[in-house]
Design brief:
- The protein is of the alpha/beta class.
- The protein has two domains: 123 residues, ATPase, nucleotide binding domain (Nucleotidyltransferase, domain 5, 2-Layer Sandwich), CATH 3.30.420; 160 residues, Nucleotidyltransferase, domain 5 (2-Layer Sandwich).
- Helices cover 37% and strands 21% of the residues.
- Helix 1 crosses helix 2 and helix 3 packs across helix 9.
- The chain is globular and about 60 Å long.
- The protein starts with a strand and ends in an 8-residue tail after the last helix.
- Bound molecules: adenosine-5'-diphosphate and zinc ion.
- Zinc ion binds next to helix 4.
């Protein structure tokens, strides 16, 4: 048993990967998430595509150590259920582990996608030598995977790290979660595109807002500077709360590089409460492509198997 299956369930696509226990990605397959069909039917498709992937890689099920699944929260890892993910509106209380067990007689591991991505960074990426670090994803939304004292901090049901819904400033209006002024509503890729478009008066993608920043558009500069301050404050909160040695930032928005990282580092150096923690490393994620499936596979190697009451 030298291989692992990692499955990353997302709102638009589901990625399946076959990974060696050394962390080599042997084969992958991506299928669109068809939200017009019942989740149980979609899980049936995952099963079929996994078999095809194994077949293509000349791998027998007897070689598989286990299956790791990463999914968007909210989830319930005690019960092995995807409960209420906003990006999967048809997936309500889906017993993903029980359904997969109908198809596979293998150990199944299940966590939220940000926790899985944190484990991917621990296994093969920027967190390899860290006992305490946080993976922060700034993408369509904002989420965190918390790795502390050499283990994931998952919370009672696997939803610790839903950091994007921390209220920063209610004046910013209503977030998808119903609260006003969440971090995600202010500083996610979605928020930056929305506010940048308002400033310029035409629809812009997040990347285009950053291009205007580079080309010295005054209003965009002052707007994005305030977003960077907010992200800096978010990192200070994480450092003050969990005292990681490193914050690893991933997700689409992190691709902009230094213009995002430098102001966050400056803010952290100024405002982290403990002066000894002001040098906390703020670094880009090392694994972008395939981080989801690698993280899901990492669950098999790096977490204790849960007892599912299914
Ligand atoms: P998902 O949220 O589905 O996991 P991503 O991590 O790719 O997807 O994040 C998507 C967000 O990142 C979108 O808001 C997108 O506009 C933004 N984004 C993607 N690439 C870039 C880039 N190079 N520069 C700035 N923003 C980007
Ligand atoms: Zn919110």
């Amino acid at each position: 048993m030298t291989k692992i299956i990692g499955i990353d369930i997302g709102g638009t696509k589901i990625a399946i990967g076959l990974i060696s226990i050394e962390g080599e990605l042997l084969a992958t397959k991506t299928i669109p998430t068809d939200q017009s069909i019942k989740p149980t039917k979609m899980i049936g498709q995952i099963y079929q595509h996994t078999l095809q992937l194994l077949d293509r890689a000349h791998t027998a099920l007897s070689e598989i150590l286990g299956i790791g699944i990463g999914a968007p929260g909210p989830i319930n890892t005690k019960k092995g259920v995807i409960t209420y993910p906003p990006n999967l509106p048809q997936w309500r209380n889906v017993p993903i582990v029980a359904e997969m067990k109908k198809h596979f007689n293998l150990p199944i591991f299940f966590e939220n996608d940000a926790s899985a991505a944190a484990l991917a960074e621990k296994w093969l990426g920027a967190g390899q030598s860290e006992s305490d670090f946080i993976y922060l994803t700034i993408s369509t939304g904002i989420g965190a995977g918390i790795y502390t004292n050499n283990a994931l901090l998952t919370g009672a049901k696997g939803n610790a790290g839903d950091f994007g819904h921390t209220v920063i400033n209610p004046a910013f209006g209503q977030c998808v979660c119903g609260q006003r002024g969440c971090l995600e509503h202010i500083a996610s890729g979605t928020a930056i595109a929305r506010e940048g478009s308002k400033i310029v008066g035409k629809p812009l993608a997040t990347k285009e807002v950053f291009s205007l920043y580079q080309s010295n558009h005054n209003e965009i500069i002052s707007y994005l500077d305030s977003v960077f301050q907010t992200l800096g404050a978010a990192c200070v909160t994480l450092i003050n709360t969990f005292e990681p040695n490193k914050i690893i930032i991933g997700g689409g928005v992190s691709k902009v590089g230094d213009s995002l990282f430098d102001p966050i580092r400056d803010y952290v150096q100024q405002y982290t409460l403990n002066p000894d923690n002001r040098e906390t490393a703020i670094v880009p994620a090392a694994l972008e492509q395939n981080a989801g499936v690698i993280g899901a596979a990492a669950l098999v190697l790096h977490t204790k198997q849960k007892e599912y009451s299914v």
